[in-house]
From TrEMBL:
Keywords: Lyase. One of its GO terms (molecular function) is 3-dehydroshikimate dehydratase activity. It comes from Aureimonas pseudogalii. This is 3-dehydroshikimate dehydratase. Coiled coil: none annotated.
Length: 280
């Protein structure tokens, strides 16, 4: 499996991309997933060529389409994201499918998101890019059923899925079953874990983006409530994903998680659906 780290892990750190790239290369990461605000605002220094010289690539830029903006703003920002992806040679752009959960979204609101995603997928396809919607609470991709419906409604080959394993579990679906159902649409994975269901609020955006936000409850990949080892062993060797760590001690946790992930995936006996250690 090709595994990257996310620059969002360092959102509250005063470190350069050059330093992050040095760490990533030294510890065996395959690439660096750029958070949109970082991709746009990194100053002169390391670029796509510099990353390539270190054996790294940008597999995805994680940002947010302006789905609710006026038409001209939506068009302009989508075009800017395409240019940004070209600058970093990233083949994928990640977005969220709206800002409301599927049960809270009216038919008219859903139709609007569908139209915008279809249009954006067409624009990205024209640039040789793929648009990924992330499995995430508070969006139209909060359950497997809603996401499948969304994919059918948009009906564009450039629209794919960023399969966030923990968020699928959070939404009440079995990740193994959801993975099998969505297999033809999945293009990337986000990997993170949590101590228990009661701690899932630590991943709410308002908490994640706050420098003084709560980090207690976030765990290393193989220490949380979801048992990742069986799930990871079902993935094909060419699968791509990122360790999405939001807690403290970024360097230590990311390096250790990657080392353990490599050990787990090297064993590769294909197992059945992943298990959950607890329902806490």
């Amino acid at each position: 499996m090709k595994v990257s780290l996310c620059t969002i892990s360092f959102r509250h750190h005063l470190v350069s991309l050059r330093e992050i790239a040095g760490f990533a290369a030294a510890n065996g990461f395959d690439g660096i997933e750029l958070w949109g605000i970082h991709a746009r605002n990194l100053g002169p220094g390391l670029d796509a060529d510099g990353l390539a010289a270190r054996g790294l690539r940008v597999p995805m830029i994680s940002d947010y389409l302006a789905l609710d903006a006026p038409d001209d703003v939506f068009e302009r920002r989508t075009a800017e994201l395409c240019a940004l992806a070209a600058r970093w040679r990233a083949p994928r752009l990640r977005t969220f499918a709206g800002a409301k959960g599927s049960a809270a979204t009216s038919p008219e609101e859903r139709a609007h998101v569908v139209r915008r995603l279809r249009h954006a997928a067409g624009v990205l396809a024209g640039h040789g890019l793929r648009l990924l919607v992330e499995t995430h609470p508070g969006t139209l991709a909060d359950t497997t059923a809603s996401l499948l419906r969304l994919l059918a409604e948009v009906d564009h080959p450039a629209l794919k899925v960023n399969f966030d394993v923990l968020h699928v579990w959070e939404g009440g679906d079995d990740p193994g079953e959801a993975h099998a159902t969505l297999a033809g649409h999945i293009d990337y994975y986000h990997l993170k874990n949590v101590r228990g269901r009661a701690d899932l609020a630590v991943f709410e955006p308002a908490n994640v983006y706050a420098a003084a936000g709560r980090r207690e409850g976030m765990t290393a990949l193989f220490e949380g409530v979801f048992d990742y080892a069986p799930f990871l062993r079902t993935l094909e060797p060419e699968a791509e994903g990122s360790l999405e760590w939001f807690g403290d001690a970024c360097y230590t946790v990311l390096a250790d998680d990657l080392s353990k992930l490599r050990t787990v995936t090297a064993a590769r006996p294909h197992e059945a659906a992943p298990r959950v250690r607890a329902t806490a």
